[in-house]
Design brief:
CATH class of the largest domain: Alpha Beta
Number of domains: 3
Bound molecules: uridine-5'-diphosphate
CATH architecture of the largest domain: 3-Layer(aba) Sandwich
CATH superfamily of the largest domain: NAD(P)-binding Rossmann-like Domain
Structural class: alpha/beta
Number of helices: 13
Distance between the termini: 17 Å
Radius of gyration: 22 Å
Largest sheet: 7 strands, mixed
Length: 379
Protein backbone atom coordinates (compact mmCIF):
# COMPACT_ATOMS: atom_id res chain seq x y z
CA UNK A 1 0.00 0.00 0.00
CA UNK A 2 2.93 2.39 0.43
CA UNK A 3 5.38 3.00 -2.38
CA UNK A 4 8.05 4.36 -0.07
CA UNK A 5 8.94 3.95 3.57
CA UNK A 6 10.99 6.89 4.71
CA UNK A 7 12.95 6.29 7.86
CA UNK A 8 13.66 9.52 9.71
CA UNK A 9 11.80 12.83 9.49
CA UNK A 10 14.85 15.08 9.40
CA UNK A 11 15.51 17.44 6.55
CA UNK A 12 16.67 14.69 4.17
CA UNK A 13 13.68 12.47 4.88
CA UNK A 14 11.21 15.35 4.62
CA UNK A 15 12.58 16.59 1.28
CA UNK A 16 12.43 13.01 0.01
CA UNK A 17 8.85 12.59 1.20
CA UNK A 18 7.83 15.84 -0.44
CA UNK A 19 9.53 15.09 -3.75
CA UNK A 20 8.20 11.56 -3.95
CA UNK A 21 4.66 12.61 -3.07
CA UNK A 22 4.97 15.33 -5.71
CA UNK A 23 5.66 12.49 -8.13
CA UNK A 24 2.47 10.72 -7.06
CA UNK A 25 4.01 8.26 -4.60
CA UNK A 26 2.46 7.11 -1.35
CA UNK A 27 4.93 7.67 1.45
CA UNK A 28 5.02 6.58 5.06
CA UNK A 29 7.52 8.45 7.22
CA UNK A 30 8.64 6.72 10.41
CA UNK A 31 10.39 8.84 13.01
CA UNK A 32 12.00 7.51 16.17
CA UNK A 33 11.67 10.75 18.10
CA UNK A 34 8.37 12.16 19.33
CA UNK A 35 8.54 15.00 16.81
CA UNK A 36 9.45 15.58 13.17
CA UNK A 37 12.21 17.87 11.91
CA UNK A 38 15.30 16.03 13.14
CA UNK A 39 17.88 18.42 14.53
CA UNK A 40 16.32 21.55 13.03
CA UNK A 41 13.29 21.13 15.31
CA UNK A 42 12.54 24.15 17.51
CA UNK A 43 10.58 24.36 20.72
CA UNK A 44 8.68 27.53 21.47
CA UNK A 45 8.73 29.17 24.90
CA UNK A 46 7.19 32.57 25.57
CA UNK A 47 7.31 33.36 21.87
CA UNK A 48 11.00 32.46 21.58
CA UNK A 49 11.95 29.51 19.43
CA UNK A 50 14.64 27.39 21.05
CA UNK A 51 16.94 25.49 18.69
CA UNK A 52 16.71 22.37 20.79
CA UNK A 53 19.45 20.41 19.00
CA UNK A 54 21.88 23.28 18.55
CA UNK A 55 21.88 26.48 16.54
CA UNK A 56 20.87 26.13 12.91
CA UNK A 57 21.55 28.97 10.52
CA UNK A 58 20.55 28.39 6.95
CA UNK A 59 23.17 29.49 4.43
CA UNK A 60 23.81 28.49 0.87
CA UNK A 61 25.26 29.52 -2.46
CA UNK A 62 23.11 26.98 -4.26
CA UNK A 63 20.45 28.97 -6.14
CA UNK A 64 18.20 25.99 -6.62
CA UNK A 65 18.29 24.98 -2.96
CA UNK A 66 17.62 28.58 -1.91
CA UNK A 67 14.61 28.81 -4.20
CA UNK A 68 13.46 25.38 -3.12
CA UNK A 69 13.38 26.25 0.58
CA UNK A 70 11.54 29.47 -0.17
CA UNK A 71 8.56 27.55 -1.47
CA UNK A 72 7.83 26.78 2.16
CA UNK A 73 9.23 29.68 4.16
CA UNK A 74 10.42 33.25 3.92
CA UNK A 75 13.88 33.82 5.32
CA UNK A 76 14.59 36.76 7.58
CA UNK A 77 17.71 38.93 7.26
CA UNK A 78 19.69 37.31 10.09
CA UNK A 79 23.41 37.24 9.39
CA UNK A 80 25.50 35.06 11.65
CA UNK A 81 28.22 37.12 13.34
CA UNK A 82 29.31 35.15 16.39
CA UNK A 83 31.58 36.63 19.02
CA UNK A 84 34.42 34.65 20.60
CA UNK A 85 34.96 34.99 24.34
CA UNK A 86 38.50 34.09 25.38
CA UNK A 87 39.12 34.64 29.09
CA UNK A 88 36.66 37.51 29.16
CA UNK A 89 38.07 39.25 26.08
CA UNK A 90 35.78 39.45 23.09
CA UNK A 91 36.84 38.93 19.48
CA UNK A 92 34.77 39.03 16.32
CA UNK A 93 34.47 35.92 14.20
CA UNK A 94 35.17 34.63 11.65
CA UNK A 95 38.82 35.63 11.51
CA UNK A 96 38.80 39.05 9.90
CA UNK A 97 40.17 42.58 10.27
CA UNK A 98 38.05 43.17 13.38
CA UNK A 99 39.61 40.10 15.02
CA UNK A 100 43.13 41.10 13.97
CA UNK A 101 42.63 44.64 15.25
CA UNK A 102 41.38 43.35 18.60
CA UNK A 103 44.33 40.96 18.89
CA UNK A 104 47.22 43.08 17.65
CA UNK A 105 45.91 46.65 17.65
CA UNK A 106 46.76 47.01 13.97
CA UNK A 107 44.99 49.27 11.48
CA UNK A 108 45.60 48.04 7.95
CA UNK A 109 45.24 44.70 6.13
CA UNK A 110 48.93 44.87 5.22
CA UNK A 111 49.87 44.98 8.92
CA UNK A 112 47.62 42.00 9.67
CA UNK A 113 49.02 40.04 6.74
CA UNK A 114 52.57 40.72 7.83
CA UNK A 115 51.90 39.29 11.30
CA UNK A 116 50.08 36.23 9.99
CA UNK A 117 52.66 35.57 7.27
CA UNK A 118 55.41 35.67 9.86
CA UNK A 119 53.56 33.25 12.16
CA UNK A 120 52.50 30.80 9.50
CA UNK A 121 56.14 30.27 8.46
CA UNK A 122 56.46 27.60 11.13
CA UNK A 123 54.43 25.26 8.93
CA UNK A 124 56.19 24.05 5.84
CA UNK A 125 54.62 21.68 3.35
CA UNK A 126 51.05 20.38 3.20
CA UNK A 127 49.33 20.60 6.64
CA UNK A 128 48.93 17.10 8.04
CA UNK A 129 46.35 17.80 10.70
CA UNK A 130 44.04 20.49 12.06
CA UNK A 131 46.74 22.18 14.14
CA UNK A 132 49.06 22.59 11.17
CA UNK A 133 46.19 23.65 8.95
CA UNK A 134 45.04 26.28 11.44
CA UNK A 135 48.51 27.73 11.99
CA UNK A 136 49.15 27.81 8.26
CA UNK A 137 45.87 29.69 7.76
CA UNK A 138 46.00 32.25 10.58
CA UNK A 139 49.19 31.79 12.61
CA UNK A 140 49.85 30.68 16.15
CA UNK A 141 48.28 33.59 18.11
CA UNK A 142 44.83 32.94 16.71
CA UNK A 143 45.32 29.21 16.89
CA UNK A 144 46.13 29.35 20.61
CA UNK A 145 43.39 31.82 21.61
CA UNK A 146 40.50 31.10 19.29
CA UNK A 147 40.92 27.64 17.82
CA UNK A 148 42.84 25.15 19.96
CA UNK A 149 40.66 25.12 23.10
CA UNK A 150 37.38 25.30 21.24
CA UNK A 151 38.27 22.57 18.79
CA UNK A 152 39.72 20.20 21.37
CA UNK A 153 36.60 20.61 23.52
CA UNK A 154 34.28 20.14 20.57
CA UNK A 155 35.96 17.03 19.23
CA UNK A 156 37.37 15.55 22.44
CA UNK A 157 40.80 15.03 20.97
CA UNK A 158 44.00 16.91 20.22
CA UNK A 159 44.12 19.19 17.18
CA UNK A 160 47.12 17.18 16.00
CA UNK A 161 44.82 14.17 15.72
CA UNK A 162 42.01 15.88 13.83
CA UNK A 163 41.58 16.13 10.07
CA UNK A 164 42.55 19.48 8.54
CA UNK A 165 39.30 19.92 6.59
CA UNK A 166 37.20 20.78 9.68
CA UNK A 167 38.87 24.17 10.05
CA UNK A 168 38.63 24.96 6.34
CA UNK A 169 34.92 25.58 6.99
CA UNK A 170 35.89 28.90 8.57
CA UNK A 171 36.60 31.92 6.39
CA UNK A 172 39.68 34.10 6.89
CA UNK A 173 39.31 37.64 5.56
CA UNK A 174 41.33 40.80 5.39
CA UNK A 175 38.24 43.00 5.40
CA UNK A 176 36.13 44.29 8.28
CA UNK A 177 33.39 41.73 7.68
CA UNK A 178 31.91 39.71 10.57
CA UNK A 179 29.62 37.57 8.43
CA UNK A 180 30.48 34.02 9.51
CA UNK A 181 29.57 32.58 6.13
CA UNK A 182 30.82 33.28 2.64
CA UNK A 183 27.58 32.07 1.12
CA UNK A 184 25.43 34.23 -1.08
CA UNK A 185 22.19 33.58 0.83
CA UNK A 186 21.50 33.27 4.53
CA UNK A 187 18.71 33.60 7.05
CA UNK A 188 16.40 31.99 9.58
CA UNK A 189 12.93 30.91 8.42
CA UNK A 190 10.23 33.34 9.52
CA UNK A 191 8.14 31.41 12.03
CA UNK A 192 10.99 28.94 12.57
CA UNK A 193 12.26 25.72 11.05
CA UNK A 194 9.13 23.81 12.01
CA UNK A 195 7.28 25.80 9.34
CA UNK A 196 9.73 24.51 6.74
CA UNK A 197 9.32 20.93 7.92
CA UNK A 198 5.52 21.16 8.11
CA UNK A 199 5.48 22.63 4.61
CA UNK A 200 7.56 19.77 3.25
CA UNK A 201 5.31 17.19 4.88
CA UNK A 202 2.06 18.83 3.79
CA UNK A 203 0.68 16.72 0.96
CA UNK A 204 -2.56 18.63 0.35
CA UNK A 205 -1.48 19.98 -3.00
CA UNK A 206 0.47 16.91 -4.03
CA UNK A 207 -0.75 14.00 -6.12
CA UNK A 208 0.79 11.43 -3.79
CA UNK A 209 0.49 11.24 -0.04
CA UNK A 210 2.61 11.57 3.09
CA UNK A 211 1.70 9.84 6.33
CA UNK A 212 3.89 10.40 9.37
CA UNK A 213 4.30 8.28 12.48
CA UNK A 214 6.50 9.44 15.31
CA UNK A 215 7.87 7.34 18.15
CA UNK A 216 8.64 4.41 15.84
CA UNK A 217 12.14 2.95 15.76
CA UNK A 218 12.49 1.25 12.39
CA UNK A 219 15.50 -0.85 13.36
CA UNK A 220 13.45 -2.30 16.23
CA UNK A 221 10.42 -2.67 14.00
CA UNK A 222 12.36 -4.72 11.46
CA UNK A 223 13.00 -7.33 14.13
CA UNK A 224 9.35 -7.62 15.12
CA UNK A 225 7.13 -9.10 12.41
CA UNK A 226 3.85 -8.45 14.26
CA UNK A 227 4.63 -4.79 14.99
CA UNK A 228 5.83 -4.35 11.45
CA UNK A 229 2.58 -5.66 10.04
CA UNK A 230 0.57 -3.41 12.35
CA UNK A 231 2.39 -0.28 11.26
CA UNK A 232 2.84 -1.04 7.61
CA UNK A 233 -0.47 -2.77 7.05
CA UNK A 234 -0.78 -5.36 4.32
CA UNK A 235 1.85 -4.83 1.68
CA UNK A 236 0.10 -7.18 -0.76
CA UNK A 237 3.25 -9.04 -1.64
CA UNK A 238 4.93 -5.80 -2.63
CA UNK A 239 7.94 -4.51 -0.73
CA UNK A 240 7.91 -0.74 -0.45
CA UNK A 241 11.16 0.96 -1.35
CA UNK A 242 12.94 2.25 1.73
CA UNK A 243 14.67 5.61 2.15
CA UNK A 244 16.79 5.14 5.23
CA UNK A 245 18.19 8.27 6.89
CA UNK A 246 19.19 6.79 10.25
CA UNK A 247 22.67 5.75 11.31
CA UNK A 248 24.13 3.36 8.74
CA UNK A 249 25.92 1.21 11.34
CA UNK A 250 22.70 0.78 13.35
CA UNK A 251 20.95 -0.49 10.21
CA UNK A 252 23.52 -3.25 9.93
CA UNK A 253 23.41 -3.99 13.66
CA UNK A 254 26.93 -2.60 14.17
CA UNK A 255 28.29 -5.61 12.29
CA UNK A 256 31.78 -4.08 11.93
CA UNK A 257 31.56 -2.08 15.16
CA UNK A 258 30.07 1.39 15.76
CA UNK A 259 31.06 4.49 13.83
CA UNK A 260 32.22 7.29 16.14
CA UNK A 261 30.21 10.45 16.64
CA UNK A 262 30.60 13.49 18.78
CA UNK A 263 27.69 14.14 21.08
CA UNK A 264 26.28 17.36 22.53
CA UNK A 265 24.47 18.23 25.73
CA UNK A 266 22.39 21.36 26.17
CA UNK A 267 21.46 23.33 29.29
CA UNK A 268 18.98 26.15 28.88
CA UNK A 269 18.29 28.97 31.33
CA UNK A 270 15.54 31.55 31.33
CA UNK A 271 16.43 35.10 32.31
CA UNK A 272 14.12 37.97 33.31
CA UNK A 273 16.13 40.18 31.08
CA UNK A 274 15.54 41.44 27.58
CA UNK A 275 19.02 41.00 26.19
CA UNK A 276 21.58 38.83 27.96
CA UNK A 277 24.58 38.62 25.62
CA UNK A 278 23.76 40.92 22.71
CA UNK A 279 24.45 38.29 20.07
CA UNK A 280 22.88 34.95 19.11
CA UNK A 281 26.07 32.91 19.27
CA UNK A 282 28.98 33.40 21.66
CA UNK A 283 31.87 30.94 21.37
CA UNK A 284 33.89 30.20 24.50
CA UNK A 285 37.28 29.37 23.10
CA UNK A 286 39.27 28.71 26.31
CA UNK A 287 39.81 25.06 27.20
CA UNK A 288 38.95 25.65 30.88
CA UNK A 289 35.34 26.70 30.14
CA UNK A 290 33.45 23.41 29.81
CA UNK A 291 30.96 24.54 27.16
CA UNK A 292 31.75 25.63 23.62
CA UNK A 293 29.01 28.16 22.99
CA UNK A 294 26.07 29.96 24.46
CA UNK A 295 23.09 30.58 22.23
CA UNK A 296 20.65 33.41 22.95
CA UNK A 297 17.88 32.16 20.71
CA UNK A 298 15.77 35.31 20.44
CA UNK A 299 18.47 37.10 18.43
CA UNK A 300 18.00 34.69 15.52
CA UNK A 301 14.60 36.29 15.00
CA UNK A 302 15.19 39.79 16.41
CA UNK A 303 12.93 39.00 19.37
CA UNK A 304 11.79 41.84 21.62
CA UNK A 305 10.28 39.77 24.44
CA UNK A 306 10.98 41.00 28.00
CA UNK A 307 12.58 37.63 28.84
CA UNK A 308 15.29 35.57 27.18
CA UNK A 309 16.52 31.98 26.93
CA UNK A 310 20.19 31.11 26.73
CA UNK A 311 21.50 27.61 26.05
CA UNK A 312 24.96 26.39 26.96
CA UNK A 313 26.26 23.81 24.51
CA UNK A 314 28.55 21.15 25.99
CA UNK A 315 30.39 18.74 23.74
CA UNK A 316 29.99 15.19 25.01
CA UNK A 317 31.37 11.74 24.49
CA UNK A 318 28.97 9.64 22.58
CA UNK A 319 27.75 6.06 22.97
CA UNK A 320 25.80 4.11 20.32
CA UNK A 321 22.09 4.69 20.81
CA UNK A 322 22.50 8.32 21.97
CA UNK A 323 21.72 11.29 19.72
CA UNK A 324 24.55 11.51 17.22
CA UNK A 325 25.61 15.01 16.16
CA UNK A 326 28.94 15.22 14.39
CA UNK A 327 30.44 12.34 12.42
CA UNK A 328 34.13 11.92 13.28
CA UNK A 329 35.49 11.71 9.77
CA UNK A 330 39.00 10.59 10.65
CA UNK A 331 40.88 7.91 8.72
CA UNK A 332 39.77 5.04 10.96
CA UNK A 333 36.08 5.92 10.82
CA UNK A 334 36.17 6.71 7.12
CA UNK A 335 37.51 3.20 6.48
CA UNK A 336 34.81 1.74 8.69
CA UNK A 337 32.15 3.77 6.91
CA UNK A 338 33.38 2.48 3.54
CA UNK A 339 32.69 -1.08 4.75
CA UNK A 340 29.13 -0.18 5.71
CA UNK A 341 28.66 1.75 2.46
CA UNK A 342 29.58 -1.39 0.52
CA UNK A 343 26.89 -3.34 2.40
CA UNK A 344 24.41 -0.51 1.79
CA UNK A 345 25.08 -0.58 -1.91
CA UNK A 346 24.22 -4.26 -2.03
CA UNK A 347 21.02 -3.87 0.01
CA UNK A 348 18.07 -4.26 -2.32
CA UNK A 349 15.24 -1.71 -2.22
CA UNK A 350 16.96 0.55 0.27
CA UNK A 351 18.42 3.97 -0.44
CA UNK A 352 20.71 5.40 2.27
CA UNK A 353 20.89 9.18 2.53
CA UNK A 354 21.49 12.13 4.84
CA UNK A 355 24.03 12.96 7.53
CA UNK A 356 23.67 9.76 9.56
CA UNK A 357 23.31 7.31 6.69
CA UNK A 358 26.13 8.84 4.64
CA UNK A 359 28.26 9.69 7.70
CA UNK A 360 28.87 13.20 6.39
CA UNK A 361 29.23 16.59 8.07
CA UNK A 362 26.33 17.97 6.01
CA UNK A 363 25.02 21.49 6.43
CA UNK A 364 21.29 22.02 5.83
CA UNK A 365 21.75 23.15 2.24
CA UNK A 366 24.00 20.16 1.48
CA UNK A 367 21.28 17.92 2.86
CA UNK A 368 18.59 19.42 0.65
CA UNK A 369 20.91 19.28 -2.37
CA UNK A 370 21.74 15.61 -1.70
CA UNK A 371 18.04 14.70 -1.40
CA UNK A 372 17.06 16.58 -4.55
CA UNK A 373 19.81 14.82 -6.49
CA UNK A 374 19.01 11.41 -5.06
CA UNK A 375 15.31 11.58 -5.84
CA UNK A 376 16.14 11.94 -9.54
CA UNK A 377 17.82 8.57 -9.44
CA UNK A 378 14.88 6.89 -7.69
CA UNK A 379 11.71 7.77 -9.48
N1 LIG B 1 36.26 26.75 15.30
C1 LIG B 1 37.19 27.27 16.17
N2 LIG B 1 36.85 28.34 16.93
C2 LIG B 1 35.65 28.92 16.88
C3 LIG B 1 34.69 28.39 15.97
C4 LIG B 1 35.03 27.30 15.21
O1 LIG B 1 38.30 26.76 16.26
O2 LIG B 1 35.40 29.88 17.61
C5 LIG B 1 36.65 25.57 14.49
C6 LIG B 1 36.46 24.28 15.23
O3 LIG B 1 37.50 23.41 14.86
C7 LIG B 1 35.16 23.77 14.68
C8 LIG B 1 35.21 24.23 13.24
O4 LIG B 1 35.88 25.48 13.31
O5 LIG B 1 35.06 22.37 14.80
C9 LIG B 1 33.87 24.38 12.56
O6 LIG B 1 33.09 25.30 13.27
P1 LIG B 1 31.59 25.57 12.91
O7 LIG B 1 31.17 26.74 13.71
O8 LIG B 1 31.46 25.60 11.44
O9 LIG B 1 30.92 24.25 13.47
P2 LIG B 1 29.37 23.91 13.59
O10 LIG B 1 28.62 25.20 13.59
O11 LIG B 1 29.06 22.99 12.46
O12 LIG B 1 29.30 23.23 14.91
Amino acid sequence: MYDYLIIGAGLYGCVMAHELAKRGKKCLVLERRAHVGGNVYCEEREGIRIHRYGAHIFHTSDEEVWRYAQQFVTFNHYVNSPVANYMGHLYNLPFNMNTFRELWDIVTPAQARAIIDEQRKEITGEPRNLEEQAISLVGRDIYEKLIKGYTEKQWGRACTELPAFIIRRLPVRFTFDNNYFNDRYQGIPEGGYNVLIDGLLDDKKLTGSIEVRTGVDYNELRKDAAARKKILGRTEGRTPEVIYTGAIDAYFDYEFGPLAYRGLRFETDRFEEENRQGVAVMNYTARMVPFTRTIEHKHFEFGTQPVTYVTREYPADWQPGEEAYYPVNDAENSTLYAKYAALAKAEPHVHFGGRLAEYKYYDMDDTIRAALDAVQTLS
